[in-house]
Design a protein that fits this description.
CATH topology of the largest domain: Cytochrome Bc1 Complex, Chain A, domain 1
Order of helices and strands: HHHHHHEEHHEEHHHHHE
Largest sheet: 5 strands, mixed
Strand order of the largest sheet: 1-5-2-4-3
Shape: globular
Number of domains: 2
Structural class: alpha+beta
Low-confidence stretches: 343-348
CATH architecture of the largest domain: 2-Layer Sandwich
Strand content: 5-15%
Radius of gyration: 23 Å
CATH superfamily of the largest domain: Metalloenzyme, LuxS/M16 peptidase-like
Number of helices: 13
Mean pLDDT: 91
Number of strands: 5
């Protein structure tokens, strides 16, 4: 957006915050678009479907068990009155973050925010009831058979989700930074352990990875995932992924390995700042998670401070079966007359 249009955009968005018009006919059209988007991005994508089912099993109480786009039954039963009630409850200036990134003067932005948003009264928000996830008491497993949900798959897939902590106190926390480095050691670059051992050397998998987000607002999950090679089973891949974590538990990581993982991870944190959009997303995500965006550089410093001993410690602490959920995609032969895959629709 040209910066000279910022005042106009601020005015439009402020107006939308309290004076949105929800037309029943337009809602009926848009909800069909959202349904089609769900088919395209989840129901016709086996791995996305598996990830959705994994979250629904890993979380029993927390809202993370519900997909952002909603279940199809939610969309089919939603009415314009439901949307209006949600809008009236939650769309308020005291329940929003306004992020502006670009070639602007911050004092000008503050004046515009005061001019257009300052006149909007704060609203009493609904009371947020606790939805804390209870401790998991043992391993959970699920299998998704693709054709049963009309999502043809070519390869089996395995996903393992371990419940782990996330950053709540930037300075005091230690384990979330060590978990970030563990993910980087396992899968932070092409020569990282999972790709090197499982894909290139053992040829056990066609892909293998690890992922973790330390700045989640809700409960944290450390994922291990992959697709076994032809002739190899999901069970073999699970055993191999567990063995890679066990190696870190028993032997730790080398200084050179950790240094490379740090360089790759920290570089990715810095390079993403080349994108205006990525900067805005970073600021908004940190603030919504309760972390001041001004602490961003400190987060990088904390990653640089992680020691080999801390990486080994979190590998030993968080990767038992008591907080593990395992999801498997079991590809089946296609039905005789499969439903055509959904065409592309614009993303909301």
């Amino acid at each position: 957006m040209p910066k000279q249009k910022l005042p106009e955009m601020m005015q439009l968005e402020a107006d939308r915050m309290r004076h949105l018009s929800l037309d029943e006919k337009e809602f009926a059209q848009e909800i069909r678009v959202v349904m089609e988007e769900r088919r395209l991005r989840t129901e016709d994508q086996p791995q996305a479907l598996l990830y959705e089912k994994l979250n629904a099993v890993a979380f029993q109480v927390h809202p993370y068990r519900v997909p952002i786009i909603g279940w199809m039954t939610d969309l089919q039963s939603m009415t314009v009155s439901d949307a209006r009630a949600w809008y009236d409850d939650w769309y308020a200036p005291n329940n929003a973050y306004l992020v502006v990134v670009g070639d602007v003067d911050h004092q000008d932005v503050f004046r515009l925010a005061e001019q257009y948003y300052g006149v909007l009264p704060a609203r009493t928000l609904p009371v947020r009831k606790p939805q804390d996830e209870p401790p998991q008491a043992g391993i959970r497993r699920l299998t998704v058979k693709a054709p049963a949900v009309k999502a043809p798959a070519d390869l089996p897939v395995l996903m393992m989700a371990f419940k782990v902590p996330v950053i709540r106190h930037v300075e005091q926390d230690v384990d979330p930074y060590a978990l970030e480095m563990l993910a980087a050691v396992l899968a932070g670059h092409d020569a990282a352990r999972l790709n090197r051992h499982l894909v290139r050397e053992q040829r056990l998998a066609v892909s293998a990875g690890a992922s973790y987000d330390s700045t989640s607002r809700g409960p944290g999950i450390f994922h291990l995932h992959g697709a076994p090679s032809a002739g190899r089973s999901r069970g073999e891949l699970e055993t191999a992924l567990r063995a890679e974590v066990a190696r870190v538990q028993e032997e730790g990581v080398s200084a050179e390995e950790l240094a490379r993982a740090k360089a790759q991870l920290i570089a990715s944190q810095i390079y993403k700042l080349d994108s205006i959009f990525a900067q805005a997303m970073e600021i908004g995500q940190l603030e919504s998670a309760g972390i001041p965006h001004t602490m961003n550089r400190r987060l990088i410093d904390k990653l640089q401070e992680v020691s080999r001993e801390q990486v080994q410690a979190v590998a030993r602490k968080y990767f038992g079966d008591e907080a593990l959920t395992v999801a498997e995609l079991d590809p089946q032969p296609l039905p005789p007359n499969p439903r055509p895959r959904s065409p592309f629709v614009p993303r909301h």
